[in-house]
């Protein structure tokens, strides 16, 4: 089926369902989000200034607030998330938001912190522009998002397995931003002095099924609009797990999943 709007890669309702499911599961797979929040808090701690009002963009139950622990120069933190279930778990005040139409007035914040949410935005240039406009002159954006190397092993295994067992492949792993493009996107949005760097985390699992369970617990399951709506067949999943394991043969039967996180630092122009 041809997509009705090529700019809308992600299904916002599916994303909210997935994040609500993560909340119901007790947020038991938070290690990547905790690491991202800790990294943002560390970077913020290197900047010697106060931030009277900050936005936690993708609060995810308060993981960023816990990493800050009242420090980092932040005097007041506003929590925001596309999932009501996760916003309810975060420190107050908390806001439920639409990622494509942010509900904040221009020049509302001195700081925006965003741990691992921006990779779910359909219109990333547009959202970056909205974030820049929400910042006061000289305000700071610190964000992390998953990059293009994330889950490359799972993506390859699922595509090959579906081609073998179903005669065609559908989108199975979400597309992620390219490190090389993000500096230009920040500048187009009006940010100054952008700094972009990337980290890679390799996580080992018993098998591909354990990885997919973790992705569901994270709320990071596939939310593409053009994803296959029916359940993936057992034969396809079993073949994907077999292919994944075969490519990790040197690891004693376990598999490794790559998570690339891209870190953004950028400033709103001074007034």
How does this model look, in words?
- With 271 residues, the chain is an alpha/beta fold.
- It has a single domain, classed as Vaccinia Virus protein VP39 (Rossmann fold, 3-Layer(aba) Sandwich).
- Helices cover 37% and strands 24% of the residues.
- The protein contains nine helices and seven strands, in the order H-H-E-H-E-H-E-E-H-E-H-H-E-H-H-E.
- It has helices at residues 12-24, 31-45, 63-68, 84-89, 124-134, 152-166, 179-188, 208-218, 234-247, and strands at residues 51-57, 74-81, 94-96, 109-115, 135-146, 192-205, 255-267.
- Strands 3-2-1-4-5-7-6 form a seven-stranded mixed sheet, sandwiched between helices.
- Strand 1 (51-57), helix 3 and strand 2 form a beta-alpha-beta unit.
- The longest helix has 15 residues, at 31-45.
- The chain starts with 11 loop residues before the first helix and ends with a strand.
- The mean pLDDT is 88.
Short description, anyone?
By secondary structure, this protein is α/β, with parallel strands linked by helices.
Task: Please describe the topology of this protein.
Layout: H1 12-24, H2 31-45, E1 51-57, H3 63-68, E2 74-81, H4 84-89, E3 94-96, E4 109-115, H5 124-134, E5 135-146, H6 152-166, H7 179-188, E6 192-205, H8 208-218, H9 234-247, E7 255-267
Helix pairs in contact: 6-9
Low-confidence stretches: none
SSE run:
HHEHEHEEHEHHEHHE
Q: How many DSSP E strands?
A: 7
Strand order, sheet with most strands: 3-2-1-4-5-7-6
- Quickly name the level 1 CATH class: Alpha Beta
Based on CA inertia axes, which overall geometry fits?
elongated
Largest sheet, in brief, is: 7 strands, mixed
């Amino acid at each position: 089926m041809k997509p009705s709007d090529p700019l809308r890669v992600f299904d916002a309702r599916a994303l909210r369902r997935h994040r609500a499911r993560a909340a119901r599961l007790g947020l038991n797979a938070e290690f990547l989000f905790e690491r991202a929040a800790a990294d943002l808090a560390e970077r913020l701690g290197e900047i010697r200034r106060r931030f009277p009002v900050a936005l936690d963009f993708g609060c995810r139950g308060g993981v960023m607030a816990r990493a800050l622990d009242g420090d980092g120069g932040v005097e007041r933190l506003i929590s925001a998330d596309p999932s009501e279930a996760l916003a309810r778990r975060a420190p107050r005040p908390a806001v439920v938001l639409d990622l494509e139409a942010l509900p904040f007035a221009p020049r509302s914040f001195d700081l925006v912190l965003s741990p691992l949410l921006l990779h779910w935005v359909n219109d990333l240039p547009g959202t970056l522009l909205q974030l820049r406009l929400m910042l006061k002159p000289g305000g700071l954006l610190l964000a992390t998002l998953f990059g293009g190397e994330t889950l490359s092993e799972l993506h390859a295994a699922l595509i090959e397995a579906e081609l073998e067992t179903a005669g065609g492949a559908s989108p199975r792993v979400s597309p992620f931003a390219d490190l090389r493009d993000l500096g230009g996107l920040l500048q187009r949005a009006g940010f100054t002095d952008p700094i972009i760097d990337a980290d890679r985390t390799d996580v080992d699992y018993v098998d591909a099924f354990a990885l997919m369970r973790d992705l569901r617990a994270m709320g990071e399951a596939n939310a593409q609009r053009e994803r296959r709506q029916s359940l993936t067949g057992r034969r396809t999943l079993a073949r994907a797990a077999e292919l994944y394991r075969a490519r990790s043969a040197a690891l004693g039967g376990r598999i490794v999943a790559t998570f690339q996180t891209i870190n953004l630092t950028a400033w709103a122009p001074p007034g």
